[in-house]
Amino acid sequence: MTLPPDDPRTGATPRPDETSPDRDTVGNVPATTGAEPEVVEIRRGMFGEQDTGDTSGYNGLVRAVAMPSPSERPFGGDFDTVADALTGALARTGRTFGTAVEKTVVDRGEITFYVRRDAIVDTARVFRDDPDLRFELLSGVSGVHFPDEAGRELHAVYHLLSITHNRRVRLEVTAPDADPHIPSVVAVYPTADWHERETWDFFGIVFDGHPALTRIQMPDDWPGHPQRKDYPLGGIDVEYKGAVIPPPDTRRSYN
Amino acid sequence: MADETLNPSTTDPSTTDPSTTDLSTTDEPDLYGLPEDAYDEGRVFTAGGGDWDEIAEEASELGEERIVVNMGPQHPSTHGVLRLILELDGETVTEARCGIGYLHTGIEKQMEYRTWTQGVTLCTRMDYLMPLYQEVAYCLGVERLLGIQDQVPERVNVIRVLLMELNRVSSHVVALATGGLEIGALTVMTIGFRMRERVLKIFELITGLRMNHGFVRPGGLAQDLPPGALDMITDTMPDIYQDISDIEDLANENPLVRSRLVDVGYLDLTGCMSLGITGPPLRSTGLPHDLRRSQPYCGYEDYEFDVVTWDTCDAYGRLRIRVEEMRQSMRIVEQCVRKLRDMPAGPVMVADKKIAWPAQLTIGGDGMGNSLEHIREIMGQSMEALIHHFKLVTEGFRVPAGQVYQAVESPRGELAVHLVSDGGTKPYRAHFRDPSFVNLQAMAAMCEGGQVADVIVAVASLDPVLGGVDR
Lengths: 255, 471
Known about the structure:
The complex is a heterodimer.
Chain A: E1 38-44, E2 62-67, H1 79-92, H2 97-100, E3 101-107, E4 110-115, H3 120-129, E5 137-145, E6 154-162, E7 167-175, E8 181-183, H4 192-203, E9 206-208, E10 238-240, E11 243-245
Parallel strand pairs in A: 4-7, 8-9
Antiparallel strand pairs in A: 1-2, 3-4, 5-6, 6-7, 10-11
Chain B: H1 2-6, H2 52-61, E1 66-71, E2 83-89, E3 92-99, H3 107-111, H4 119-123, H5 131-146, H6 154-182, H7 186-207, E4 216-217, E5 220-221, H8 229-251, H9 255-261, H10 269-275, H11 280-283, H12 291-294, H13 315-342, E6 361-364, E7 367-370, H14 372-381, H15 383-394, E8 402-410, E9 413-421, E10 429-433, H16 435-439, H17 443-447, H18 452-462, H19 466-470
Antiparallel strand pairs in B: 1-2, 2-3, 4-5, 6-7, 8-9, 9-10
Helix pairs in contact in B: 5-6, 6-7, 6-13, 6-18, 7-8, 8-13, 13-18, 14-15
């Protein structure tokens, strides 16, 4: 997703009274500097609700949800060693770094390789087996759902730990909602069995090649995948002394 | 006459309404049934309650030894609501699987609707035997997302280590106590729970609660140690050491314990690596992997302790590791107490007023509450302070977008939190890598081919806590 362009006519922030519905808050997007951040969503308003007749002006707020931008070499620390080893090891399997890894993000002292969907099993195997990488342990697989990141709504996040070299890396694979398939890494890391079942259960990511991809936490006949953002939290109104408090997911909240 | 028409036995079958006939006699296929040739698993006996002698007799008449037993989810020796599905051939377990999810409460989902500070209250309730580890892991993650990990006062780190190590003792001792109870070592259980009570009393004094403390906050702690806390720890310490010795004397060389535990629940290093097993089961293979040593957090590099290993890969090794780790934890607790005694009093929260809650809590006449001094200021003197207090407590602080993975060495292994922030006041996604969840995957590898009775021992040696497994 890209940022909406600045208002070409004025280049300035339009006042609320001059905004029309079709170009309502285009100019309000915060400016970005340096590398293009990964905008995954544009939030409007202050409290998550629109059309409430709010006259405070808070509905005019626009905030881009931008994840840390891709990093360039040098990554710093151990990360260059890891990236070099990965490049070499991938070459020996007949892949190049560029065809396997779509981007690399170094943020808060952690490195994330965004691995292309078709390359995840090969890459995981390289991470496990290469003597310079030797990530023996898959700590876990977690899912994240970005419903507004078109074509990359579902993320599967793999955390690897190398006890030999005392390092951690993160692999991230994305899949669109329309085609929620990611190859399973159970053949490489058997521990991924339950993690992938959990991610299927909560996010609906289908891990192709998993030996028995069934629900693990929710009952077998449960409809939907609860951790997705389009799945409501649920809950009932709480009434106390005549006042009614709505359930948490419909309460006014800051977004 | 009326009675006669109502009595079905006297009704002429030819006049019966076709819609009331039994469905099984119609030609309509059952839309929801399996095809008849779907699979053939032989004759199925479903045993729910009743007299087991009759069921066993009936099965033995058929010469069928293969039985599928659902152990749990309500079985006292499965550590909570764990369901083990065991396929038995006589006394031998030929196939073993876990059924989990009976305690799933959607804590991770709920955290997405609460502020970052409120998340502590939720995540402390996951694994109810190690609440403080979850709090610390989560708060370390939030602090790294905020980039304030270097501003956390030294005093906070020492108190966190102190609480975590006490928690390790209380968690390990429950593992030993329940594990002992399950193999008939009742006195290990009574000693163990007596000892846990000593630790929980310390927690109650410090945090106000025996478990589910909500004491660690992003940026620091809810409050400082109360007066007398260090003295209480020092006074209790000999009793705890004595209890550890008692358990050692009872269990370590006890031939009954050894005969139940030695070579049971075998899982070697290769198995641990491929199944992602950490904690005492991994260290029982001889690998000294301990995150406190390899990737220190909260200043663990400043403490002297030994990483306990064993080389038998079995349940007995895990027992010995847990007992010795309690001693090592008490060693760390002693060092913490010394550090805290030498340390001048200071804040237990970061100085940043946009993150730290404006007032330290004090215990008033009505229980816990804000300090009167602070209330006097915000209600009587400073409107801005009131607004700030209100905004921080209701809206919370914003955390820059990004993700972190923070792991700590919990009593059961690597406990980690994967936090994703969207720049808002609530976690966009919080995922806990619970060690019980991962370690439980080893159950099948440990139990298949063994005896039914050894399943209990193998599961107990993994020490799963279902609150953490299911979250």
